[in-house]
Amino acid sequence: MKTFLRLLSFAKPYPRFAIPYFFVTLFSTVFGLINVAFIIPILNLLFSATKPLSEIPYPEAAFSVEYFTGLLNYYPAWLIENYGKSTTLIFISLFLIGTNLLTNVFKYLGLRINTKLRTTVIYNMRERLFNKIVTMDVGFFSSQRKGDLMSRMTNDLAEIENSVIGALQAFLRDPFTLAIWLTAMFAIQWQLMVLTLSILPISGIGVSILSKKLKKESSESQKSSGHILSLIDEAITGIRIIKGFVAERFIFERFSNQGQHYASLGRSIGNKRELASPITETMGVAIVSAILYIGGNLVFEGKLEPGAFFMVIIGFYRILEPLKGIASSVTSIQTGISAGNRLFEILDAEIKVQDPAQPKTLATFNHSIQLKNIGFKYNETPVLKNITIEIPKGKLIALVGPSGGGKSTLVDLIPRFYDPASGSVEIDGVNIKEFDLHSLRSHIGIVTQESILFNDSIFNNIAFGLPNITQEDVERAARIANAHEFIIKTDQGYQTSIGERGSKLSGGQRQRLSIARAVLKNPDILILDEATSALDNESEKLVQEALNYLMKERTSIVIAHRLSTIRHADLILVLDKGEIKEQGTHEELIAKAGIYFGLHQHANETGGVIIE
Question: pLDDT tens digit string along 358-367?
Answer without folding.
Answer: 888 988 888 9
